[in-house]
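Session log. Operator J.P. requested a structure for one protein chain; no other inputs attached. Running the standard single-chain path with token output.
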Amino acid sequence: MNKYLQTFPIDHAKALVARKLPSWPAASIVLLVVFAVIFPPGLLTGMNLYLLLLALIVWLFSGEKFDPNLLRAIAPFGLIIVFGLVAGIGSDWYIYLKDAWYLSNPAVIVSTGYVLYRCKPDVARGLRAFVIGGTLVGLFFLSSFATHPDLVLQSSVKIRETIGTGYYAPTLSFTILCAYSGKWSEGLALPRRLAVCCLVVCALAVVLCFSRTMMVVVIIGILAAAGILARREWQRIVLVAIFGLLLVSVMRLTVDTESREVQHTFIGKLARSLDEISVQEYTDFKSINENWRGYETARALKLYYSGSPIEWLFGHGFGAQVDLGLAMPLGGTVGERPELKRFIPILHNGYAYLLVKGGAVAIFLFGYFLFWLYSVGRRVVASEKNQINFAPGRVLQAVVVTLAVTTWIVSGVFNKLDMFPFILVAGFLLAAVTRPQDHRI
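Structure written below.
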């Protein structure tokens, strides 16, 4: 017994040191988060599929049953793909197959995150990897200011035109760090000083990109970390939404939203947020250009309602395109000239995209995916008392709400790259919180 008591502290210390060392799944998470902002999305999909192929081979020889939790997460996308492929037979093959890729990509990424956790069931290492990956992406974005120091004195619009709209990975890192606030060493095996540095870098990367959507994502992360979504969340969400609407309305009354000078400021863009997503079929080019998301959605709904009852139910299928009614300059990255297009296959509003491609059934299936994943995180938060144990559940809640909101504004789940880290961590946390014994300290 005395020998055991003498060696236990040493063994425990070794375990803590080993936990701080990187593992190949953690290293893979860091690389995937960083690669998502560097490499083409097709290459990233290929990497994920390669990992899943290896995992499938191992699973086939293991004799284990397929986890029903993972099946419930990816089955909705599988069903939408089946309906979309059948309904879209005869469409342009390039767009047809591209839609199949867009719908399968979330299932592939969720599965990848799930497999990475199962390969090394350590939630601390995994979430720490997401924090480090997001911080590296934040540093990559902030490096643009080092090469263009004059941008610090420019307007928000000028900054975004020069260095782009920023990346969402730092917002995920910020959310994770908030969820483990004060418990970074115990919960993430992350030294306090390093955690603070990561928090500062991610905060700067979010602030200096002047993105309204990222600001909303950060607010969601803070609210989830503070326990706002822990119980009676719908009442609290409604109150927060009302407060946000009142704030935007006050800003709209205090600034001239029709002024070009004001529209080129971040405050002006905040004040016009509701106008831009208001669903209307504008008739003049200026209004269409200024309120693009709302106009785009209105044209998508027009196509949807023009269909038959069967198409209302199952959509127009993969390959369907929305007629904008006029040619608009679209696409292109920073510094590139946009291309004139009248028919578009992809929309900013992911729900309108689903409605066109898969109809009401697709909306229902996607809603089921979000609701079920959110309920998984909610059960963990409701049942746990220790912050380190309930933090993964709160992060999962924040991730699901983020995906629900961003799907409305920037394609969200169907965005090829922007929301990649959020979808990946959703699969990772799904595996972690459905096996609570694996993530306890």
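Operator note: The radius of gyration is 23 Å.
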